[in-house]
Amino acid sequence: MESKDTPNFVQAGVKAIDCDIHNEVPTLQALFPYMSDFWVDYCSTSGFRGPDANDYPRQAPLTTHPDAPSPWDMDLEHVREHLLDAWNLEYGILNCAYRVQSIHQPDLAVAVAQAVNDWQIEHWLDPEPRLRGSLVIPSEFPDLAAKEIERVGDHPGFVQVVLPVRSRTPYGNRIYNPIHEAAVRKNLAIGINYGGAPGTQPSATGWPSTFIEEYSGMTQVFQAQVISLVAEGVFDQFPDLRVVLIESGFTWLPAVMWRIDKEWRGLRHNTPWVKRPPSEYMRKHIRFTLQPIDAPPTPKQLLQIIGQLESDEMLMFSTDYPHWQFNTPNDAFPTELPGALARKILHENARAFYQL
Amino acid sequence: MPKYVVATPDEIPPGESKIVEIGGRSIGVFNIDGEYFAIRNSCPHQGGPLCSGLVTGFLESPVPGEYNYTRQGEILRCPWHSWEFDIKTGQSWWSPAQRRVRKYEVQVESGENIEASNSGPEKGPYVADTFPVTVEQQYVVIEID
What we know:
The complex is a heterodimer of chains A (356) and B (145).
Chain A: H1 8-11, E1 17-21, H2 37-46, H3 76-85, E2 91-94, H4 106-125, E3 131-136, H5 142-152, E4 158-164, H6 177-185, E5 189-193, H7 211-217, H8 219-231, H9 234-237, E6 243-246, H10 253-267, H11 278-285, E7 286-289, H12 299-308, E8 315-316, H13 339-353
Parallel strand pairs in A: 1-2, 2-3, 3-4, 4-5, 5-6, 6-7, 7-8
Helix pairs in contact in A: 4-5, 5-6
Chain B: E1 3-7, E2 17-22, E3 25-32, E4 35-40, E5 54-60, E6 68-77, E7 84-86, E8 103-110, E9 138-143
Antiparallel strand pairs in B: 1-9, 2-3, 3-4, 4-8, 5-6, 6-7, 8-9
């Protein structure tokens, strides 16, 4: 992405907010400066190589944009040069996909999560004021996860807690309340990102055979999380909770809204704490990053779907860089969207939701 | 408004109901703790036989995990889609602004006070001799438009 080759919105002077840039931990050893002697020794002598969820197989085309180094080699300088400066971004939101959820020893999971967050602060957030980060937490140990949010949640660089969309049980379940509560207390959004630890289902019905099934089919898991969060009353219990779905696509949402609103009328007594039609909670509390955009064939159809959301506030621009979601910079954002809507998606929605 | 005798009180004891046809309409008459209520036996959603649905209570929850279950016997769920209606007012309980089922006035009256409309033909020109009759029985009476 040469600086002369930029999306239309850059030439139009819009300072966009990119809501999904991946900053990945290069190796477990990079975390050693942030871990206690015991855990460094443990990692060095046990053969543990760090969590490896393999959400993005190293050789899969979409894992690495042709203009980028691999996600594990991409450093701050590259992000500055190719995104922040070249595209004149106002902010970039980092999402680290280090899956500490795959570590089943709770104390090691905490030690690694703490190290990742301290590494993010030193290597990404403190040096670059245009970047905001996402806390990595051992979310399958919710009490310990809440403690980590308490520990670093006040750092001004963090705006979000990141959870993998695949979980042992849906995030609306009350066992995760300590996480929701801590996020609200520290005024952080919860970002739910594609992927997850081994052992958590990548589809609504078991383990598929191939990456294409897993990557495209994970919309099912996102849908399950959205329905769970609303039905279990998480937004009734935590009215200030904000949730961002990252790499989920969004064109499936109208169908989910129509269906659950319809069922809620007859099943209200299942979830009496849900006091308004479920779609209202979704429009208020949930946002979606743009890429990978599951766009229909024509611009007219895309506008129809955005109309079916009955909200122009739910979409937030993202590149998903360095993952390969578009070829030329102009493909990063649908140029056919009307100006006012484009400005909301590129800038205003993220600024409001992340309170930037 | 015309009045229709639909039952004697012992036909609809507390907690029970009776579906009647009057004035071309199907109406459910419910006895809730000795008080009678009548609502149209047609769900405003898709016309389901509302009054043959499950009679239940009103469930509210201030927060997940807390259940306030009150007004047992006062909420009706349509057998077709389980939409909830308040038997006393006809009010629906998922989107109150939009849906309300027709409600009718019901009273228990002594036979001597009733000028019932469901007695068939209109009055003719002749009047036969009459004798005073004492009526001790009470009746459940509905008024409809």
